[in-house]
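User: structure tokens for this one?
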Amino acid sequence: MIQWPKTNDVLGTINRGNAAESGLCTLCRADCQGKCETWLTSMRGRKLLYPRDFGSVTSGSSNTCHVGVAYNSLRIQGYNYDAKGLPPGLSNSADDCIFPNVSVETSFGNEETTKCRVPIMTGALGSTFIAAKYWESFATGAALVGFPIVIGENVVGIDKAAVIENGKIRKAPELDRRIETYLRYYDGYGAIIVQLNVEDTRNGVAEYVIDKYGDKIMIELKWGQGAKDIGGEIQVTNLEYALFLKKRGYVVDPDPMKPEVQEAFNHGAIKSFSRHSRLGFTNLRSVDQVQEDFKNSVDYLRKIGYKKISLKTGSYGMEALAMAIKFASDARLDLLTIDGSGGGTGMSPWNMMQTWGVPSILLHAKAY
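Assistant:
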């Protein structure tokens, strides 16, 4: 029998008794002073949809036993003779087969190879405040160690100092800061990847990056989110900033343009806004249409000068996985990232993060 924990650190809730599937205690008492998810939701409303303390946290799903299998269930299997994977110049002598001689370097790419000193990469660090706050540490570490780092979506769109005129970026200081921080320490290992979503495409991010940085940057097309089956989100606690994002073309909820919403915010009835991104492919109704649209996007990126292109897909079902593998292969992309939706930077609805999509190990096993 699986017994669920009584506490949820992500939401800051605790059950007096054992938690039922609903989130209530199995024995819910009328005289309970409360702090379960249901009780706290009745006080704080939809704030309980998201992990607490946005801007200071990252969060990840604790639901690692969907069907009894997760990466943390795997065991490392060794063997008691022979030596495999030796780099050139080393023998299988006991004097050569020692820990300091181990190399975990890897590479990927189609026509041009990207080398990495370690076989890892970051998730996409986009428009959330935690990503901006710690970017210098992330980027410096990735460049010095020699593995790829990803600039996520909407970095230009939410930057108040960015200048966008008629769909063309004139100035993008936050995006420039992120790219230049990484390139300052880049020594030929790793890569810096810039994602494109619907708003980034409309704002001309791809054109700005290729014009300013050329083939130093890998561009990434994006299918879906890393921890949710909706568009990207951030939380905004400033009315002026919410109005700025609305005017820049984002979906902001509740609508800060409405006088009644502004009045409610000024009186403390509304304490924050959610900025949402749009989803791609909603206007397409068949696999063939998606394939044609995807091919056109790749062709355009190559036409304007990109030599390295990647695709990131979310934890959809087998049809979308097959499409991603097939389309990326046919387009001769350099990299395909298959995201199992384990977590994000604090603005993914918690219950969606816990329950949506195909778990990572099952998704990756299907891809393999």
